[in-house]
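A favour, since you know our structure tokens better than I do. What I am after is a single protein written out in full by you. Could you add the entry underneath, on a fresh line?


***
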Amino acid sequence: AGLFPNKWVFLGVRLVQGFAMGLSSHIPFVYVTEVASSRYKEMAVLCMSVSTHLGCVYVSGIAVLFLNSVGWQGMMFIVTVPMLLIVIGLYFTPESPRYALVSKGEEAALESLKT
């Protein structure tokens, strides 16, 4: 977003991104409820909710601290760092049991529950 030529292009892309985030924001909760044992399921969902809201506070704090000094383009680069860490972490995330069941069969789904 920091490479966009003006704020109108940025706002248009943010609008599309907002819809995409809204549509995909339920996916981590579904994944956590699939892989967490019934004993820890509520705590896992609570941790996901808290981390989501802390992320919102983080972005707001970055805006307050850096918006005047680096502008909105620099701020977009700063808030991209956690997102890149999440993308790297996704590489190490095992498949969900539901995906393994649909794509590879019952044995793969049971194996993904064991790991």
